[in-house]
Amino acid sequence: MKKDDYFYLGKIVKKYSFKGEVLAKLDTDQPDLYDNLDAIFIELKNNLVPFFIEKSQLHKSDLLRIKFEDVDTEADADMLIKTELYLPLELLPKLEGDKFYFHEVIGFTITDKNFGKVGTITSINDSTAQALFEIDRNGVEILIPMNDEFIVEVNRANKTIVVETPEGLIDLYL
Predict the structure, then answer these.
(1) What is the pTM of this model?
(2) Cβ neighbours for 52, distance < 8 A, ≥ 6 positions apart
(3) What CATH number does domain 3-91 carry, 3.30.1130.10, 1.10.443.10, 3.40.440.10, 2.40.30.60?
C-alpha cells in the first residue's frame, strides 16, 4: 500500500466514551459522505493500517463519531488520538467542471491566455494563505495563485489548465 493511492480524510481528535469511541475531525466540505464507511485506514508508525468500523455517525456537523471493531476501552482509544485517517483515492467523489483535487492536476500543462504555454505543474503549495500552482518552465519555478478568478478552464482529457493571470505576473520569474 502506497500512501500516494490514498487521500487524507481527517484526524482523530479525542475520545468520546469509555467504550472506545473516538471523534474524528474531517477535512471535507461534505462530512455526510463519510458517515457510513465500512473501514478506514489509520496511519500508525508510517504504515496505513485498515480499521473496521462497527458504527459511525456525524457529531456536531463536522466531527465523525466512530466505534471501531476491537477498540473497546478508553486505553485502546487513547492509542488512536492524533492519528491521521485515510481512504483510497477511488472513494473521492468525482468533481466536474473547473473544480479539481490537488493531486489530480500534477503533471498538467498550464497555459496563460496572454502569455501562452507556461509549463508543467509539479506540485501544489497549500502551506500559504493562498494555494499556489508550482510550475516548471525549463528548470525555472513559476508560482501562480490558485485563484478561481484566474482559472479559465480545466481540461482533464487533455491534461491542461488555462489561466488568465494579471499582466506581468509570469514575467516576474523569467
Answers:
(1) 0.67
(2) 38, 39, 68, 69, 70
(3) 2.40.30.60
